Amino acid sequence: MLMSLHGDASAKPATPLDKPIPIEVTAIPIDFDRDDPSRKQFGKLIFRSGLNLYAKSRHFGGFSGLVIDPSGDSILAVSDAGAWMRADLTYNGRYLNGLSNVTLGPVLGANGKPLRSNAERDSEALALASGDTRNGSAYLGFEVEHRIAIYPFTANSFGPPKGAVPLPSSAKRMHENQGIEALATIKTGRLGGTLLAFSERLPRKGGDLQGWLIGGPTPGTILLKPLGALDITDAAALPDGGIVILERRFRFSEGIQMRIRRISQSELEPGALIEGEVLLEANDAFNIDNMEAIAAHRAAAGETVITLMSDDNFSPFQRTLIMQFALPDGPVLAGPRVD
Fold it and tell me: Among 64, 72, 267, 302, whose CB has the most other CB atoms within 10 angstroms?
């Protein structure tokens, strides 16, 4: 049976991993435009490469949060079944062609044991607080039991948590299944040290979507102008101090849609209503799935590379995809809307 927007809890692994395990991941190359593989520009982004990922583990999938090493050589991801994955990325020149040294493991609770109940393990957002993808600490956002926890991690462990970020009082209005969905740590510029957070959909009067600037020099509420019926599903800090926001809509009667918006740091002011710049819009006429995770890094050539992953909801009818787009430095001619 096909699953709802948030997936079917019964499709998730009923029990967590007991410990980290190495896994083999098979990667099949994909093109963004199935009908015209030679096409590379989509909106304001240049498609680099994409992979359809498979692994023989029932814990592989459901990836909802993602960070990438500044070098672009490794990733750390979390699933909405309370698992984490660390992997090295392999390239053929600039083109992603596989994952190696892949480890899956359980997210630990305060008691040092793997999170077990669906209510407590639904991790949806990830942002680095310090370190890199192999060793450091991260902010981890959960829904159902809404919270942002601070997790130390190594290459072979994730937790127990060492504290929490207090949620703003307005976050109490979040729906059970529309909790903290996007986290991004801004490390450069005037907002350095700020944690940005958005729920999946928390409208204010008038329909604008509420988010928060937490900590940093100018904390407060921000508002995102909705463009259609897409929901916020992740965010990532850009090397220039701005952010990108990933949005998607998933209805079996309508298909899948996704959007990436860029928000400049100058727009990120407490109380501001932001709209940003649309970098890409696409529907499932193109090679997308339930796109839920986004990360960004600066490539050696200078362009910003945006990495996306999909949440397959642990469904045989969906896929775990990873793909990369380049946002060249300087002005980019607007490409056509992809739909």
Answer: 64
